[in-house]
Amino acid sequence: MDASITSLTLETKSMQSDIAGFQSRVTGLEQRMGSLETQINTSQEREQDFIYLRSKLTDMEDRSRRDNIRVLGIPENEEGSDMQAFLTSTLPKMISLDFDPPLEFQRAHRIGPKRSDNSSRPRPIIACLLRHNQT
């Protein structure tokens, strides 16, 4: 009987040792899981910030483009040395509208490099309006 009690005691101690090992593994896994959950929450917050900032950037880009106009078909070098003055005087005549106050441009230039193939197709002009009425 002493042998069976000793055997049971040894088995119980072995099981307790196994349980302690399992508990330490579970504790380690719980800590790792908590750390991963924190990282996931941080990543989700950053993703939301990124989505918000991307929408703000898109809005700002769209707003910066809304004052731009593109003029096609003006022969090369017809504008002379002052593109803004040329557009201020020519554009109202081209579209048969009278602007009061007159159009003011922040910048105006041709798009792209000069064509070297002596193409008859002129480069487009892009102009950014400084002040205008939105009517």
What is the compact description of this entry?
The protein is α+β, with helices and mostly antiparallel strands and 135 residues long. The chain contains two helices and three strands; from the N terminus they run αβαββ.
Could you explain how this protein is built, in words?
InterPro entries: Transposase_22. The model has no long low-confidence stretch (mean pLDDT 88). It is rod-shaped, with a radius of gyration of 37 Å. Strands 1-3-2 form a 3-stranded antiparallel β-sheet, covered by helices on one side. The chain has helices at 2-65, 83-95, and strands spanning 68-71, 104-110, 125-131. The chain has 2 domains: 1-64; 67-131. The N and C termini lie far apart (105 Å). The protein contains 2 helices and 3 strands. It is an alpha+beta fold and 135 residues long.
The percent of residues in helical segments reads 55-70%
State which percent range the strand residues make up: 5-15%
Number of strands: 3
Describe the largest sheet.
3 strands, antiparallel
Whole-number count of domains? 2
- Work out the helix count: 2
Order of helices and strands: HEHEE
Query: What structural class should be given to the helix and strand makeup?
Result: alpha+beta
> Rg to the nearest angstrom?
37 Å
Average pLDDT taken over every residue: 88
Shape: rod-shaped
N- to C-terminal distance = 105 Å
Biggest sheet, strands in spatial order? Answer: 1-3-2
Oligomer: single chain
InterPro entries: Transposase_22 (IPR004244)
